[in-house]
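Sequence, please.
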């Protein structure tokens, strides 16, 4: 055989030396090397197949060498034969330029609104979806249906101005049926949307535009101020209310926060989210006494209003009830959060969402019908009680509850942080001797008994707080 076979990269290759009189005039290398596209697997059948393919290349090479030695052909013709027969892959075929694909139609604001609803509706209540649909429909009636890149800040200002003239119950009043918004506005309706509704509609539209990177259009828009009615002013719980709350708290292993969070709020006056976002290691044994640390530095999802990070002595009653022991067991169970069943929400990453929903929608309404009494009333009551103590100075109260003291910079700068003894003494003056804690003590026995059951279980090393069902004999 004139050429030879080689195994290269797991395939058969044909190789043949180029005659010396034809290199380098017609060939750029001293040998011809071609893949036969036949896998090398060591079998005789594949080798015979490769030998047959190599013979074809031998014939083709002989033919090319013959034409290269003819004197009747020009050098250019001979080079073309070499390229065509031996190196056809090097011949660049000029393909016709394909026609550019038509650009997809630009999305209009209706498409943008519809996409926003599809992405978020799974997490909405029915009322939220209805509000969004109405707000987007109203925006389309006012702005039309342009592409977002055609909108300007002036268009948004016009949208805000028109909303103030939109009548209430626009889609329900029979007289408005079949009329365009322009025709309805021409009648100068007297009963128009409230500032709260105008703001709510604008917030929906702004949210959809922000997600589509067009939120800057609202930079100059003037929103109605968010006004709170008299029922929104929060007032402290009375002593009778607090006693009823204490007597209504029950230990539920699946919802430990429903037991501990109100107790911590009563004793410390902390905000709901400050308590709900606590880590298990932030209830700990300090140098002088058990402590609670209010911080956000180790978790970007946590926040403390005003950024007031502080370490406080843990109220002795909470220590007596077993909060420190509970925190240690949570940590031993491998949990980071003090209340593992509370998860941060996507919106503002609030850990207190489930707690405040439970407290405001069911629990507190069994105690009082006064809508001005909410979870934050614990904080109001804590501060009010300390303010009524003539021997508790204001900077001590500010440190306990995390107020920034912006109105008195001199005191804020030159007053030292109160010692743990002073803070613990102040804490003991709030509520401690006013109430009967026997119910809480009986509920704590359930926790202790549950701990004993867990410790007797040799297959478990830790107590998975909040994830165990309460044993039947405790119910």
């Amino acid at each position: 055989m004139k050429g030879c076979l080689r195994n290269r990269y797991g395939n058969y290759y044909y190789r043949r030396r180029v005659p010396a009189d034809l290199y380098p005039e017609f060939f750029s290398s001293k040998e011809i090397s071609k893949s036969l596209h036949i896998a090398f697997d060591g079998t005789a059948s594949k080798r015979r197949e490769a030998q047959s393919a190599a013979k074809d290349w031998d014939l083709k090479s002989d033919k090319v060498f013959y034409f290269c030695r003819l004197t009747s052909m020009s050098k250019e013709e001979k080079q073309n034969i070499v390229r065509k027969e031996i190196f056809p892959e090097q011949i660049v075929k000029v393909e016709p330029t394909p026609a550019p694909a038509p650009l997809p139609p630009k999305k209009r604001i209706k498409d943008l609104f519809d996409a926003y609803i599809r992405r978020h509706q799974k997490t909405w209540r029915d009322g939220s979806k209805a509000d969004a649909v109405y707000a987007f429909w109203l925006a389309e009636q006012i702005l039309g249906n342009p592409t977002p890149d055609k909108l300007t800040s002036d268009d948004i200002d016009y949208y805000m101005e028109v909303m103030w003239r939109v009548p209430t119950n626009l889609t329900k009043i029979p007289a408005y049926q079949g009329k365009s918004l322009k025709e309805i506005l021409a009648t100068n309706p007297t009963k128009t949307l409230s500032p709260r509704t105008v703001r709510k509609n604008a917030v929906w539209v702004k949210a959809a535009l922000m997600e589509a990177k067009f939120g800057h259009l609202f930079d100059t828009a003037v929103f109605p101020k968010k006004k709170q009615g008299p029922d929104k002013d929060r007032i402290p719980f009375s002593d009778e209310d607090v006693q009823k709350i204490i007597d209504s708290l029950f230990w539920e292993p699946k919802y430990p926060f429903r037991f501990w969070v109100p107790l911590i709020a009563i004793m410390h006056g902390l905000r709901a989210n400050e308590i709900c976002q606590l880590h298990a290691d932030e209830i700990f044994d300090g140098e002088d006494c058990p402590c609670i640390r209010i911080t956000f530095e180790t978790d970007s999802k946590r926040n403390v209003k005003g950024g007031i990070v502080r370490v406080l002595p843990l109220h002795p009653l909470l220590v007596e009830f077993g909060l420190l022991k509970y925190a240690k067991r949570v940590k031993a169970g491998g949990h980071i959060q003090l209340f593992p069943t509370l998860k941060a929400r996507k919106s503002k990453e609030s850990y207190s969402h489930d707690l405040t929903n439970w407290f405001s929608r069911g629990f507190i309404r069994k105690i009082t019908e006064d809508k001005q009494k909410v979870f934050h009333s614990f904080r109001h009551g804590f501060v009010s009680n300390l303010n009524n103590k003539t021997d508790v100075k204001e900077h001590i109260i500010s440190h306990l509850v995390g107020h920034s003291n912006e109105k008195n910079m001199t005191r804020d700068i030159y007053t030292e942080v109160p010692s743990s003894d002073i803070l613990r003494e102040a804490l003991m003056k709030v509520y401690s001797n006013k109430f009967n804690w026997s119910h809480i003590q009986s509920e704590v026995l359930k926790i202790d008994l549950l701990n004993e059951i867990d410790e007797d279980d040799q297959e478990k090393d830790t107590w998975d707080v909040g994830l165990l069902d309460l044993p039947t004999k405790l119910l």
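The longest strand covers residues 31-39.
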